[in-house]
Write a structure and sequence with these properties.
disordered N terminus, 48% strand, 3 domains, Pdz3 Domain, Cathepsin D, subunit A, domain 1, 32 strands, mainly beta
Amino acid sequence: MRIVFAFCLYFVTYLTCFSQSNFQIANDKKKIVIPFKLINNLIFIPINLNGESLTFLLDTGVEQTILFSLDDKEQVSLFHLEKINLNGLGSNDAIEAYKSSENKMEVNGYVDYAHVIYLVLDQEFNFSSQVGIPVNGIMGYHFFRNHPIEIDYERKKIIVYSTTNKKLSKKLKRNFKKDSISIEENKPYYISNVTTTNLNYPSKMLLDTGNSDAIWLFLNKPSLLQLPPKTIQDYLGRGFSGNVYGQRARIPSFTFGSKTFENGIGTFPDSTSVKSVNFVKDRAGSIGGEVLSRFQIVFDYPNGKLYSKPNSKSNEPFNFNMSGIEVQHDGLEWVKETYEDSQSKSSTVYNGYANDSRFQDNLKIKFELKPIFRIYNVRADSPAALAGLKTKDKIIAINKQKAHTLSIEKINELLKSEEGKTIEIEIERSSRVYTFKFQLKKIL
């Protein structure tokens, strides 16, 4: 969620999980190409699970594969179920889940015949509504563990390379910057030079493709990083153990790959939200999709290396949602539309009078299922809050554009477009229609 979409997808199991999960390239191919959808800096890939086609978030910030939504599927077979508990970011207690083993997962010839999956039955943990497409689960470490994995954010393609692919070595030496990463608790960590106030410190950061923000920093652990003087309190998203709250601030600088980013937006979750997170030693925070999507990246877990090359997005400024509202998809509804049917043009004669149906019958009515969008969070004292918008308001139109013609990503782009831009939102509340206007205001 980049916020408007700060879904915090970090998970911890209080289990020691040793499994035989092992993705491999079938048929001795040198590489496999997997297309993906990019929504709010998050990567969604198609996965076939035991013969059923599903959609998973690809998340380097998780170890195990999580399955949490099957709303759009009639049936998915899972094997060898056993009950467990899971914890993670958020302020609540552990949630109930089930562990399933010996599952087949496959995408374009990249296959695992003994995959372990954790099934979460709590329907509150389902972020399909935040991205606007059905999402069935999350996949992490096991996808990356055996092969070099390239993520090309601009072309929206993942390339899985054979370990014997010689062309890859030449490509990386010629075009990419090489850095070391450490794989700890089956997640990748990188040293970034971070400045939050006046001094610059080497900081150990989780590389997290499942976090759509730029950079998260933790202040409740031993660290020399400090909270910048100007901050805003904000809802950051939902984690595995409940809602996550904290502060946001512009930070002077941080590094990734060959780039030094200045005036980026740092996110500082509060201590309650991270109480259940099992931090690795010296971890200071995370680098997320808002930064990673500005590069072409190759993760090489087996050799502890990361290769990166800036793309055309690398010099763009870090923008922030200036409206104060966050929007989610809330199902579908039937919408009546009129349209002109060119096939119905004809002429007939009745009692000697010509009847040209081009003027009578070519307007048709059709009903189509269209998305519903609602406001699910309003930041206190924000332009939207001061204008009178509230949570649960159903959005009918934004700046005269019908809401059902938009996507969540397009709505988010409007809400962070430019300071001073007037936003007119037509909403439905308690069966009555209201129109609100406000101007986007830069507060960070």
